[in-house]
From TrEMBL:
SMART domains: Fn3_like (SM01217). Gene3D superfamilies: Glycoside hydrolase family 3 C-terminal domain (3.40.50.1700), Glycoside hydrolase, family 3, N-terminal domain (3.20.20.300), Immunoglobulins (2.60.40.10). It comes from Raoultella terrigena. This is Beta-D-glucoside glucohydrolase. SUPFAM superfamilies: (Trans)glycosidases, Beta-D-glucan exohydrolase, C-terminal domain. It comes from the Bacteria. GO terms for molecular function: beta-glucosidase activity. Belongs to the glycosyl hydrolase 3 family. Keywords: Glycosidase, Hydrolase. Residues 359-429 form the Fibronectin type III-like domain. GO terms for biological process: carbohydrate metabolic process.
Length: 523
């Protein structure tokens, strides 16, 4: 089956095995009928597609389950739990959160998303939840008699600033001890069939943050968005909760985190850049000549920022807690492993705070130098650990050595670079205090050399180098050791291929066929 409007040539797609084009269009029906009548699409192909579609219908009917009644209340409780486990605390200056009656009795809640929460993107995946937690309602509910909560929309229109509403928001915020502002990106730009126009939140929401921050020093921002956004307004708030699209239970989860009934434990699954211009796709997007070139290769996300030695606004894997966690005593199950083994990495994780909390421990690896360009570090394992105040626990993560493989286009296969790998453990991609080394014992694999490869590439393949040294010694009567030293000396400075290097710089009498046979080990 095709994706919606994914078929450009219905007869060709049917011949290629696509039985069902979605959605049905008059153009597809017309071109397919003409192709059948002309013989371009044989009836046997049409019959095959029909048989397979009928078989699918029969299979669906045969395995249809009896109707059951869904437990929507239980499902909603699960949605609240998932949201609470996922929301990321990105900033908490002066420990503004959690809110307490002693410091923040008067709370101003601002922003339209507090009443109309942004919980999902747009397009075919949009759903209408059976239950929906509105953050404002949940804040009122949990505040009880201990807090005084006031509300102002601040920015009722996503497109234009409402000066009267802004003035009301400023007034409400000025009378409070803390302002909690709900903001989002543009609804409709975070869905399918298009790209975001920028990495900003709504302009009216940024204006709301700045206007409120001018009269209220204690600002909490609650952000809803599909992916990373730039945050030129970050200095205007003391605390920042990143919810992403947290679903129908987001409102309750946010309220519980604000009041400390839940300890935030989510971690970023993206890197948050300082500016749009520092993102990996900046030079290639939106392409040229009606084509978009995906030029990042391996260096997508945190891999790009690590390789460029750039400090993002918030790194991949980052997330704060109301607790404090420390890592210690890393230990590997072996110092040398083979490609079919699994390495166990153990360490001690401690909760040094005064609240129960959960930490997502992350394991990254760094590869030794090899033929392929690799990332500085790559996430290979993680786990979430719940710890009581003052509790320490030994934690173990499993690292299958097969997971270290990288696709080698020259060999058309997955390969594991042999040598000394670094294992790093910590709380984010930029906070990895534990480091240990393990030797990975695999047979080196190289792309077969030819006469147009460089001398430097020859030096990296000892067996091929030995054969070439023997060939030169045989033809020149020079000592092999002297020849090897000369090749190693020349290698960094020669850009030309092996045949030119040997014939022009070493005056060797050899043709292309003979050299290629030697390189391949056939002579």
């Amino acid at each position: 089956m095709s994706d919606w409007y994914g078929i450009k040539d219905r007869p060709a797609s049917l011949l290629a095995g696509n039985d069902l084009a979605m959605p049905e269009t008059r153009r597809d029906k017309r071109t397919l009928l003409a192709a059948i009548e002309s013989g371009e699409v044989p009836l046997a192909v049409v019959d095959r597609a029909c048989r397979r579609m009928l078989a699918l219908l029969e299979k669906v009917q045969r395995h249809r389950r009896p109707e059951t009644r869904a437990d929507f209340t239980a499902h909603h409780q699960l949605a609240q739990q998932l949201a609470g486990e996922s929301i990321v605390l990105l900033k908490n200056e002066d420990n503004l959160l959690p809110l307490t009656p002693e410091r923040s009795r008067r709370i101003a809640v601002l922003g339209k998303p507090a009443q109309e929460p942004v919980i999902q993107g747009s397009g075919c995946a949009t759903t209408v939840p059976y239950l929906l937690d509105r953050p404002l309602d949940e804040i009122f509910d949990l505040a009880g008699d201990d807090f005084t909560v006031t509300w102002a929309v601040g920015a009722p229109d996503d497109e234009r600033c409402d000066e009267q509403a802004l003035a009301q928001a400023r007034a409400v915020a000025q009378e409070a001890d803390v302002a909690v502002i709900f903001v989002s990106t543009a609804v409709g730009e975070d869905g399918e069939n298009g790209d975001r126009h920028d990495l900003n939140i709504l302009a009216v929401h940024e204006r709301l943050i700045r206007e409120v921050a001018a009269v209220q020093p204690n600002v909490v921002v609650v952000l809803a968005n599909s992916d990373a956004v730039v945050m030129p307004w970050l200095g205007e708030c003391k605390a920042l909760l990143e919810t992403f699209f947290a679903g129908q239970g987001m409102g309750r989860a946010v309220a519980e985190i604000l009041f400390g009934q839940r300890n935030p434990c989510g971690k970023l699954t993206v890197t948050v850049p300082n500016t749009l211009e520092e993102t990996p796709a900046w030079l290639n997007y939106p392409g040229e000549n009606l084509r978009h070139h995906y030029g990042e290769g391996l260096f997508v996300g945190y891999r790009y920022y690590d390789k460029r030695r750039m400090t993002p606004l918030f790194p991949f894997g980052f997330g704060l807690s109301y607790s404090r966690f420390t890592y210690g005593q890393a230990e590997l199950s072996a110092s040398r492993v083979g490609p079919d083994e699994t390495l166990t990495v153990s360490f001690t994780l401690s909760n040094d705070g005064d609240r129960a909390g959960k930490e997502i421990a992350q394991l990254y690896v760094s590869a030794p130098d090899g033929e392929l360009i690799r990332e500085d570090r790559a996430l290979k394992a993680f786990c979430k650990v719940a710890l009581a105040p003052g509790e320490s626990r030994r934690v173990s993560l499993q690292l299958p050595i097969a997971d270290l493989a990288c696709y080698h286009p020259g060999l058309s296969d997955w390969v594991i670079t042999p040598g000394l790998w670094q294992v790093r453990i910590g709380g984010s991609s930029r906070d990895l205090p534990l480091v240990a080394d393990v030797e990975v014992a695999t047979a080196p694999r190289h792309v077969p050399l030819r006469d147009d490869n460089s001398l430097q590439q020859l030096i990296q393949q000892p067996e091929a180098l030995d054969r070439v040294v023997a060939l030169i010694a045989r033809k020149s009567q020079l000592p092999p050791a002297k020849i090897r030293d000369r090749l190693i000396q020349l290698a960094p400075d020669l850009f030309c291929g092996l045949l030119i290097a040997l014939t022009e710089f070493l005056a060797l009498d050899i043709d292309s066929d003979e050299l290629n046979r030697v390189l391949a080990g056939r002579e």
